[in-house]
Amino acid sequence: MAIIASELNYYYSGGAANSSGDASLGGAVSSVEITSGSLHNLFDIVNVSEATAGDVEYRGIYIANDNASLDLLSAAIYIESDSTSADTDISIALAPEGAGASMETLANEFTEPSGVTWHSLVGAGNSLPIGGDLPFGDSLGIWIRRTVSPGASAVASDTASLRFNGGTAA
């Protein structure tokens, strides 16, 4: 038996019932799932002043192994598709608290999380190992940083997506 894709899920942070990307600033894992790792609704639309001046914002999410009995071995995460805007960079970092623990809570979306190392890893060949296995029924915090370059062009729809994977015991 193996873990199937529908058992590897993404959840907001910000408390048990949070369903808002804007409020996904760390803290406890939400019970509300983020559809398929898409970052489309996690960040706000970049307005003209943010595009002109540049903007750096942070969000915290959780990846979860929702299988009932199998650990995800050698788990790793990567940016499946980077921002569609040439003026935007997406980076990810592991929450240092580790699997099963609540992430740090940020004061606001402009506060950088403590003790993280940022990675711009696009494609499965550039996966960021989570440092071991993700036990069944457990989750791990992931920080996402969106950097909009000063003087950015206006983009009506900017999307990016994450993916995580691993294996199971034979």
| Average of the residue pLDDT scores | 89
As residue ranges, the low-confidence spans are: none
Question: What is the tally of helical segments?
Answer: 1
> How many beta-strand elements?
10
Domain count, please report it. Answer: 1
Structural write-up:
By secondary structure, the chain is mainly beta. The protein has one domain. It contains 1 helix and 10 strands. It has one helix at 48-53; strands at residues 8-13, 26-27, 29-34, 55-65, 73-81, 88-94, 103-105, 128-129, 139-148, 161-167. The strands form 3 sheets. Strands 3-1-4-9-6 form a 5-stranded antiparallel β-sheet. 38% of the residues are buried. The mean pLDDT is 89.
Structural descriptors:
mainly beta; 37% strand; 10 strands; single chain; 4% helix; globular; five-stranded antiparallel beta sheet; 170 residues
Concise description?
The protein has 170 residues and is mostly beta strands.
